[in-house]
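Methods, example record. To illustrate the input and output format used throughout this study, we show the complete record for Cytidine deaminase. The sequence lines were provided to the predictor; the line carrying structure tokens was produced by it.
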Amino acid sequence: MNNTRLTQALATLTPDVALALTTSLGQQGFTGKIPASIITPVLNQPEKLMPWLTFAAQFAITPVSNFNVGALVIGNSGAAYIGANMEFAGQALSQSVHGEQAAINNAWLHGETGISHLFVNASPCGHCRQFIREIAQHQQLQVYVLGKDKIAFNQLLPDSFGPDDLGNKFALFEQPQQVFVASEQSPVIDEIVEHANASYAPYTGYYHAIGLITSDDQLFVGRYAENVAYNPSLPALQSALSQLRFTGYDVTDIKRSILVHKTGQNIDMAQHYSSLLRQLNALNLDLVELS
Ligand code: THU
Ligand code: ZN
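The corresponding predicted structure is encoded as:
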């Protein structure tokens, strides 16, 4: 994949840092991850990580606001993950992905077990604070907003409504693996099923994941991340589209979409996803049920 967006974003970094990132890339190319070898040496000088916010913001899609948010989270492995906001022209604002959500989703999909630091170029909004409240390590999370002093997450969201309020003992990043089985099997469906089983839906049981297949047969899978306050939940389609963006593909490169979902629950998002996919690239959503 010729990732022209990456090329543009690299131009915002100093040449040595840009070179360190490009030489670290493997066969898969850029997937939104910055290796620990680049991050760890400067972790005690947070100001040196701020340029990554400008880099991350290059991946934003903001046809509605023209306000580009760049975020970076550091995972427990020491690697960092970028995030950028994504808006959908002609759709409801509720379809938007916030930069912080994108970065956290990026770390989660890369297999991190938690995050320790969040960097962002604008103060995290209430919706993002509530989204972060769902994470196991939120109590230890350090937040660095561009131009401001470091702040502990708990100071940003005192007296919060959290998973306990709905009797949920689990947390995002520490969710138990589900063991649902799909109504059909294939290598592609099996991979989406794995992600559906790793999705987080403790309040509804509507475990699901969406796979997007590009015309050159690359598969991008997004997982659902539910929230105790419902509305800040990150839909699986947004999760997948956000990852697709980092790699240089566009929505117009998608030829097939598949939703693997646990039906028979109190909610169902198939219609909701179908309508967005139809508008984005005239795509039909194939459905696979889990039981
Ligand atoms: N936005 C974020 O990405 N993070 C925040 O916490 C503040 C708001 C985005 C959402 C929308 O795309 C745009 O900024 C204007 O609100
Ligand atoms: Zn936000």
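Annotations derived from this record:
The beta strands are 33-34, 70-75, 80-84, 115-120, 142-145, 151-152, 208-214, 219-223, 254-262, 285-290.
The domain at 187-289 is CATH 3.40.140.10 (Cytidine Deaminase; domain 2).
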